[in-house]
Structure formats: structure tokens, C-alpha cells
Design a protein that fits this description.
Length: 368
């Protein structure tokens, strides 16, 4: 079939505080890391050999996924970092540089390789993408999505001829200056010879450095225009949007955990909920060991992580509560991401427990 490469060495600074102590690909969606959905999707299409480049908090990825046998795949890791004054310091090599390091070490990329970023949810028909790539005898392909012209400034734009051969790129152009509305999704197909263009031992990027080389050399380099769900978690506000879409059932092959005890309301085991005196409007997921006191209202799409406690009179609307979050009595949280330590609104503004300027009160449900 093909091999897989998942890019997971980035620091994820634009989604802090979610990534303060967590690699971006490990951010949870419906209780599972984003990266887990990607690995499941690759396995679904017969991609069994997968390399993941890692750097920041790399052990959290490695400890969770191990050798991949639980998902029916074989996973390898390539750490990008240096030893400095006795400490191991992450030092990412860029998306292309990381692949060249792997190739120089073992020659792993000896056939068509699907390259994806570890921070997006996709339901791409991988088989169709590989078939088109091979039928055009491409050395490289970019999977692209058509986006509205007024949104092109959020993406790298692909400019291709009528046959799909790529002629140039534009990085986040103004709508009036865009030569195309095809957005690169960060999903690529490479043949092994492409990596010969990447200088060894250097930081080198796929989009800004490798792709212009392919265009310059007029190699068979194509854009694939496809329709599929591609949900990128580039910013904190994107994370809120992703969860709203997933909870609403817009993304295929992402099933709600727990047991559906009422229409649109899924519940995990060992919960204490005052059903006779609460209002719960789905889609809502309530995790295990959650306590919901009388007078609480929960309006979906909402996710309540395990071990959380909603005290009397709380109202939660279209929000995400991470595990062990306690909401104080009478508080109202609308369109929020809430953890025991911080709270982030839909616009990506973060507030922390104890901030006197923030009117809402919440905390850690453990030990209470």
C-alpha cells in the first residue's frame, strides 16, 4: 500500500495553555488524542508502517502509543533534539529535515509515503489519493481543499494548471491577490527520490523550502482537489470549533463514548446525576464519576470530562470541561474550554484559577 509519516515535533505555541505540558497531537477529542484518530485512519487504509517525529514532551506520545500493536500498526519514533549542558533539549529539524534524518538513518522511505500533520482530524479517502498520485506518476502530491475566497488569508494557497500540476504557492494571500482558492491541507504524498532534494542535517521545511524546489525543477508535482473533512487545530478557537463539530456528529468515524440514555445524551459509568432536577439538552457527553447537583443546566454540544463536579445552579452551554473540573455554585460557563487550572473562551483568551479580574469561579474537583 504505502508507508506513513506523522509530523508531531512542533511545540504547539498557538494553542497554549492546552499544550503547556502536552504535545499538540495529544490534545483530546472525545477523550482520545488527535493522533490516535490519525493512526486509526491510516490503519483503516492498510498503512501499517508509520514513523512519527517527536520533540517537545516526546515521551507522552511514545508512552501512550508504544510500538503501535494495539492499533494493528508498527510505529517508530525519531527524536529531534540535542544534549546541552547535560540536558536533552528539543530541537525540531523542520517537516522536511525530520524526514531526511530518518531517511539517512535507515532508508525507511523506500516507497510511496503519506505525510500528515499530527494536529488535524481528517476522513480523507487515502486509497483514492494514492491511486491518483500513482496514476499521474507524481513524485509529490499535495491534497488540497477548495475554500471560500474570503478565507484564503488563513491558508497556504496552491496554484496549479488545468491538469493539476503545481506552478506556484501563495502563503496566506489577501483575497484580492489570491491566484487560487485551493488550500494546502498539510497532507502530502512523496516518492523516495523527493528526499534527495532535502539537505542533510539542516532545518528544512516542506511547504516553504522543499515545494519551491520541486516547482523550480519542473518535476511531476501535483495538487489533488478533494472533498473531505479536514479540521485543523491551529489555534485555541479552532479547538473549541472542532469539538462542537464532532459532538454534533459532523465528522465520520468519530463515535461518542458511553451509553446513550436519552436522545443525544451519552453517559459513562459511575455517575451521580440529579436527573429529576437538572436540564440536559444534547448532544452532551458526561464522563465517568461525574457529579451533577440539583438545579444544573447543561446545553450541548458539551463535553464533561470524567471526575468533574457541577455544583447546584451551574449552567454550562456549548463548552468543554476537562477531567476533574469543578464549577462553583451558580456559575455560568458559555462557549468555554475549562480545566482545573485554566479557562479559555471561544476567542482564545485564557484565564487562570484565582484571577480576581475574571468573574467566574471554578477549580479542581479532586479531594472535595
Amino acid at each position: 500500500m504505502a508507508k506513513g509519516m506523522i509530523l508531531a515535533a512542533g511545540q504547539g505555541t498557538r494553542v497554549r495553555p492546552l499544550t503547556k505540558n502536552l504535545p499538540k497531537p495529544m490534545v483530546p477529542i472525545l477523550g482520545k488524542p488527535v493522533l490516535e484518530y490519525l493512526i486509526e485512519h491510516l490503519a483503516r487504509y492498510g498503512i501499517r508502517e508509520i514513523m512519527i517525529n517527536v520533540a517537545y514532551n516526546h515521551y507522552k506520545i511514545e508512552n501512550y502509543f508504544g510500538d503501535g500493536h494495539r492499533w494493528g500498526v508498527s510505529i517508530g519514533y525519531s527524536y529531534e533534539g540535542v544534549r546541552d549542558h547535560g540536558e536533552v533539549v528539543p530541537k525540531p529539524l523542520g517537516s522536511a529535515g525530520g524526514m531526511r534524518k530518518i531517511q539517512d538513518f535507515s532508508g525507511f522511505f523506500d516507497q510511496t509515503t503519506l505525510v500528515i500533520c499530527g494536529d488535524a482530524i481528517i476522513d480523507l479517502d487515502i486509497g483514492a489519493a494514492i491511486h491518483e498520485h500513482r496514476s499521474k506518476q507524481a513524485v509529490a502530491s499535495v491534497v488540497a481543499l477548495d475554500v471560500p475566497r474570503d478565507q484564503v488569508q488563513n491558508y497556504g494557497v496552491v496554484v496549479a494548471d488545468d491538469n493539476g500540476q503545481i506552478k506556484s504557492f501563495q502563503e496566506k494571500p489577501k483575497p484580492e491577490e489570491a491566484k487560487s482558492t485551493l488550500a494546502s491541507t498539510g497532507i502530502y504524498l512523496f516518492e523516495p527520490e523527493v528526499l534527495d532534494l532535502v539537505p542533510p542535517g539542516k532545518v528544512f521545511d516542506i511547504g516553504s523550502e522543499l515545494f519551491p524546489l520541486l516547482v523550480q525543477k519542473e518535476l511531476p508535482f501535483y495538487a489533488q482537489k478533494r472533498f473531505f473533512n479536514w479540521i485543523d487545530i491551529g489555534r485555541l478557537s479552532d479547538y473549541w470549533t472542532v469539538l462542537q463539530r464532532v459532538l454534533s456528529g459532523e465528522v465520520a468515524q468519530m463515535d461518542m463514548p458511553g451509553k446513550e440514555i436519552r436522545p443525544g445524551v451519552w453517559v459513562g459509568p459511575n455517575t451521580s446525576i440529579a436527573w429529576d432536577s437538572v436540564q440536559i439538552v444534547g448532544p452532551v457527553y458526561i464522563g465517568s464519576s461525574v457529579r451533577i447537583d440539583p438545579g444544573v443546566s447543561v446545553i450541548g454540544p458539551t463535553w464533561i470530562g470524567h471526575g468533574s463536579h457541577l455544583k447546584p445552579g451551574v449552567r454550562v452551554e456549548r463548552s468543554i470541561l476537562f477531567e476533574y473540573t469543578r464549577l462553583a455554585e451558580g456559575q455560568r460557563f458559555s462557549e468555554m474550554i475549562v480545566s482545573p487550572q485554566y479557562c479559555v473562551n471561544r476567542q482564545g483568551e485564557a484565564y487562570y484559577v484565582g484571577d480576581d479580574e475574571f468573574p467566574l469561579r471554578w477549580g479542581d474537583a479532586r479531594g472535595r
